[in-house]
Amino acid sequence: QVQLVESGGGLVQAGGSLTLSCAASGRTFNNYAMGWFRQAPGKEREFVATITWSIGYTHYADSVKGRFTISRDNTKNTGYLQMNSLKPEDTAVYYCAASTRYGLRVDIGEYDHWGQGTQVTVSS
Question: Is 110 left (phi over 0), alpha (psi -120 to 50) or beta?
């Protein structure tokens, strides 16, 4: 059984930084995509960033491009989301997800496994 566990969320002031982690267990994800999504209160879950597991190609939502960096450590089966220059509008529950499909994946429906989410709150 695949399990994804996020950590690293919290409260931070605008302009600050946080790093989220996503630990995967149950199988290795070589050649599969890992993604980060977020959901703010009253809004739909939206794509944030994705990375292919083996080569490390990345893709970002325009709203976070230049501020967030997605990465992974294959030896630890763990993905990361480094978030800099945080804004109040980044406040949301952040979810990591894994797709058994090859390549970069941006659609929620393309992901097969999800973590439980971690809260990120950015104060103004």
Answer: alpha
